[in-house]
Design a protein that fits this description.
Shape: globular
Pfam families: NAD_binding_9
Distance between the termini: 35 Å
InterPro entries: FAD/NAD-bd_sf, HpyO/CreE_NAD-binding, L-asp_N-monooxygenase_NS-form
Structural class: alpha/beta
CATH class of the largest domain: Alpha Beta
Region (Disordered): 560-581
Radius of gyration: 25 Å
Strand content: 15-25%
Domain FAD-dependent urate hydroxylase HpyO/Asp monooxygenase CreE-like FAD/NAD(P)-binding: 18-173
Number of strands: 18
CATH superfamily of the largest domain: FAD/NAD(P)-binding domain
CATH topology of the largest domain: FAD/NAD(P)-binding domain
Strand order of the largest sheet: 3-2-1-7-18-17
């Protein structure tokens, strides 16, 4: 392992801080730092390859408007509560900033619009930076972060680099240079290894009009891919009966979309706000459940069994609160929370019609056309309990066996709780009813060769495909094949990925720890690369995680101490990396 850098030498210059990644998580960290640092001199360099810092690729303002959030607009607010640096009138939530142009707080707005909000927030933040604070944005992808004396050298892919006293990695959804899944290698048809950006990945050259397209995956990214290849090719969705839609194909477009996935289980529709009577009582139900989760004992499977019971109890209470007393018994036998063991029924493999029926039922419940049932209740329970789950089950709260059990429970509940908007479920159903989306092979299918062709084969038969699109995002943490700076830090031992976890080990302020649990001075990580050590990063919530604020507190204290020290002499280690964006 490379030895951690020594403590910073005495110096009178500003503290040099690098942000590797300036998407939302990097922006949130910068907001906390500029609010905390006060009049201590700090020189911040943010390395971000995307042309719109603050937004990053996920919220790219240039993406089409039919790529939407799967969370209501009222949950988006980039400002930390109590920020004292930016005037209150300029610390606007998304809803206030948008002014109702995209439907208000309950709308599932385009991700591009959220990207413009984040970019505007970055500009606002920089206008109010302190007089001894400098912030430069360098449009560069970082290839390496390596120890350099008392600091860290950040090296861009073109080889230029600079030394910084503090480095924070916030690389988010960074992908390997070639994200192709090994299981798709060697196929005699074109393989599109990723969905985003849709304009580059899913254009007519990559996926010709009329092609039959296999979609690996059936979650949010697969829905985005399906829309890119239909609505993005001139198709339209027009109102149907109730909240249903009808698909009208455009002149261009693919011949068919054939999704297949590991589980075959669809993500169910996220409910509209308050579609059922009695929802005002759900706040009390959630608070009671969070208190129960916070008090759960144990570090192994017993703790996860307690969480499973707490979710079931909260779901049952939620059903009773909205006046659905006939359904609570269904919660206890739902596969997502039923106790493990011989009595647990084996999940039934679903045919295409059953998949569509489950989606349709979830849509009707989401918009208030059908009374809520077990899926709705469990989804609500998991969302309501999630802040307490993040606090209770992160870090070293579970041993290896407990973590395996937690991951399995969370995966099942996230499919129910964090699904697409009702509108996007209506679009999926419209594509299926129009014969464009073939759901017959979504469950239990294999992608294989047959007589020189590539086919999707399942119990329902097989279908030849012309193109394969990998619509599964790489996992969080440091995924296999990652060629970014974190992979190098893990390889040298400067950062440590605990056994069984996907992300790197960090303390409560995002500071990296080595394999012995010792702090690594000057090196910190926030967001997706810490997943499993810190739980639940796919969110724009400012209050769910506190690592960025803890990091800013620590760095601001170091900057104040740094400013009182005598000069260390001329700086000779700085090399320009690029022009400010």
């Amino acid at each position: 392992m490379a030895p951690p850098p020594a403590a910073s030498p005495r110096s009178g210059r500003p503290l040099r801080v690098a942000l590797v990644g300036l998407g939302p998580k990097g922006l949130f960290a910068l907001e906390r730092l500029l609010d905390r640092v006060g009049d201590a001199p700090v020189d911040v360099v943010a390395y971000e390859p995307h042309p719109t810092p603050g937004a990053g690729p996920v919220y790219d303002p240039a993406q089409p408007d039919w790529l939407r959030m799967n969370n209501a607009a009222r949950h988006v607010d980039l400002w930390w509560p109590g920020n004292a640096t930016v005037p209150a009138a300029e610390r606007r939530s998304f809803v206030a900033w948008d002014g109702g142009r995209h439907g208000g707080g309950d709308a599932f707005v385009p991700r591009a619009v959220v990207g413009r909000y984040l970019a505007d927030g970055l500009a606002t933040l920089l206008r109010h930076a302190g007089p001894v604070t400098t912030v430069r944005v360098v449009r560069a992808r970082v290839g390496q972060v390596v120890p350099a004396g008392a600091g860290w050298r950040v090296v861009a892919e073109d080889g230029a680099g600079a030394v910084h006293d503090e480095v924070l990695l916030a690389t988010g959804h960074a992908r390997p240079r070639d994200p192709r899944d090994p299981g798709l290698a060697g196929l005699p048809v074109p393989v599109v290894p990723a969905v985003f950006p849709v304009g580059d990945r899913l254009g007519g050259d990559a996926v010709p009009d009329g092609a039959v397209v296999a979609l690996r995956g059936f979650a949010l990214t697969a829905i985005d891919a399906a829309l890119a290849l239909t609505e993005g090719r001139g198709g339209r969705f027009v109102p149907g009966t109730g909240r249903r839609l009808r698909y009208v194909a455009g002149a261009d477009g693919v011949g068919a979309l054939v999704p297949f996935s590991r589980t075959g289980l669809p993500m169910v529709a996220k409910p509209d706000p308050a579609p059922h009577p009695g929802t005002e009582a759900l706040d009390v139900v959630g608070e009671t459940g969070r208190e129960l989760v916070a008090s759960l004992p144990g570090r192994s499977v017993d703790a996860v069994d307690g969480l499973r019971a707490a979710v079931a109890a909260t779901a049952t209470a939620a059903l009773l609160a909205v006046g659905a007393p006939g359904d609570p018994a269904m919660v206890a036998v739902h596969p997502a929370v039923a106790p493990a063991g011989p009595a647990t029924p084996t999940p039934v493999r679903t045919a295409g019609g059953a998949t569509a029926a489950r989606l349709a039922a979830s849509l009707d419940v989401a918009v208030g056309l059908r009374p809520p049932g077990a899926d709705w209740a469990l989804g609500h329970a998991w969302r309501a309990l999630y802040p307490a789950v993040v606090d209770r089950f992160g870090g070293t709260a579970l041993d290896a066996a407990g973590w395996v059990a937690f991951r399995a429970l969370a995966a099942d509940l996230e499919r129910i709780a964090f699904g697409p908007s009702a509108e996007n479920v209506a679009k999926v159903l419209a594509l299926a009813e129009a014969g464009v989306l073939d759901l017959d092979h979504v469950d239990g299918a294999l992608l294989t060769r047959a007589a020189g062709d590539v086919v999707v084969r399942s119990g329902a038969g097989e279908r030849r495909v012309d193109v394969v699109v990998d619509a599964v995002l790489p996992g969080p943490g440091v995924p296999p094949g990652d060629d970014g700076p974190l992979a190098g830090l893990v390889a040298t031992g400067a950062a440590h990925r605990p056994p069984g976890r996907r992300g790197v080990d960090v303390d409560a302020a995002g500071g990296c720890r080595d394999a012995a649990g010792r702090p690594v001075p000057g090196l910190s990580v926030v967001g997706r690369p810490t997943e499993d050590v810190v739980v639940g990063h796919d969110t724009l919530s400012r209050t769910l995680h506190r690592q960025a604020d803890g990091w800013a507190r620590r760095v601001a204290a170091r900057a104040r101490e740094h400013a009182t020290l005598p000069p260390a002499g001329p700086e000779a280690t700085r090399t320009p990396v690029g022009d400010p964006a």
